[in-house]
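User: If you would, consider this record:
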Amino acid sequence: MAFAKEHAAWFEKNQVILNITVEEKLANIITDDDVLRDEIKQLRFIHLSINESFPQLSAGKNNAQLVALKNDFTLWLDGMGSGNANMAPIFDHIFTWVKLDRALFWELYQGENFTIILPSLLRNLNRFCRNVVIDGLDSAEYFDALNKTDVQGMKGMLWPGVEAAALDNLLESPSQFH
């Protein structure tokens, strides 16, 4: 929270999302602690990311903890397609963002039907959530393959992390991506 508060003006000014991964223990703390929950809610640029391995994720809207988090925060499903959950939480509109698992993307990319399967998957995911991000873009070849698809974000080794002092570097698009 200290980092988020310290750099809140930068995130807000540049309309950049700070995505925080939430495991079961942290989810319990957030849902049980009204002060902490309200503190996080005030920082509108913070989104919460829940991995496919989150307990009872496949229960979707029947998972009271997921619903409580959804009621207060913008949620991401991280690692969608890793094989740990069914589609119920997506169909139940629990998540605003879905991040496709990197291993699934790599498998689809290597397959002969990449240009058929991926657009169909994206079209169907976009029916139930507003945004889809593809993880695993570790080469310009992957970037080029997705450049004209209906994804709202890409993640991978093409965009290395930066120290807090270099946050502005995240706003610059490398020339190879124009």
